[in-house]
Structures are given as structure tokens and as C-alpha cells.
Amino acid sequence: MKADIHTIIDMLHSDPSGISTKFGIPLRTVYAWCSGARRPPDYLITMMLNIILLERRSSNGNETEKLAEGMGADFS
Questions:
Q1: Has residue 73 been placed in a domain?
Q2: Among 10, 11, 33, 57, whose Cα sits 20 to 30 Å from the Cα of 63?
Q3: Cα–Cα distances in angstroms (integers) from residue 3 to residues 56, 72, in the given order
């Protein structure tokens, strides 16, 4: 699965405002990504995904490991 901003929003059960607050990204920028007017850099999506997965890793164990592998994340 190729992660995008909508994947990040869904994973956090959030909205653009929550993404803006959590990661310190201007709200207008997040809205532009969500509308398709702009695309976030791939490295930024990867960074946000890794942060979310690392936060969940300590609380969910193996389930998060499987999710991370399915999305191409590598924590080794």
C-alpha cells in the first residue's frame, strides 16, 4: 500500500487540523495536500508514518510490526 496524507489521517483517526497540530505543519499546507492542489514530499509521508508506527509499536507489539512491514517501513 502506498501511503499518502489520507492514509496518515485515517491512521490517526484525525482530520487536517489534527495533522497540522501533531506534526507542526501549517493547516493551509495540509488542506492543500488533502485537496490534491499540492503533494507532500515522499520523505515527509514516510517520516509521519514512522512516527505513528513507532508510537504504536510500544503499545501494540506484533500487530504494528505487521502493519509496518505491509507499508514498507523498516525499523531495524
A1: no
A2: 33
A3: 17, 9
